[in-house]
Specification:
Helices cover about 80% and strands about 0% of the residues. It is built from 8 helices and no strands. It has one domain. The chain is mainly α. The longest helix has 26 residues. It starts with a helix and ends with a helix. The radius of gyration is 16 Å and the shape is globular.
């Protein structure tokens, strides 16, 4: 029974890794409607994806290839969490990518959220 549970956990982990990588690759070439569909699915879990070993890459791809509105919505999800994200192994990559990808006025806001 333990071997079966181990196999199930491994298969679940493997599928998650595959799915995250698949999404990352597709976001670079996705149409606006395809990006919107994926974005709408991940938005409610954005903060947990930001701190996830694989999920953070999906959020980073949206900061790179998402629309201005999507980037702004993700930046809003960071609000109130800049310091904890900055100190977290994967979250710090999100803060860095956000600062690289958002307009200067949003960068100023993000910096203020860091200090508050």
């Amino acid at each position: 029974m333990a071997m079966l549970n181990t196999a199930q956990v491994f298969i679940g982990w493997f599928l998650a890794v595959f799915l995250y990588r698949f999404i990352q690759q597709k976001l670079e070439r996705a149409s606006p409607s395809e990006k919107a569909m994926v974005f709408n699915e991940i938005l409610s879990a954005a903060y947990s994806l930001m701190t996830d070993v694989f999920g953070n890459y999906v959020i980073q791809k949206f900061f790179e290839f998402g629309t201005s509105e999507q980037k702004q919505m993700l930046a809003q999800r960071i609000r109130g969490h800049v310091m904890p994200l900055s100190l977290q192994m994967y979250g710090c990559r999100i803060v860095q990518k956000a600062l690289e990808s958002i307009p200067s006025e949003m960068q100023v806001l993000l910096s203020r959220w860091f200090l508050s």
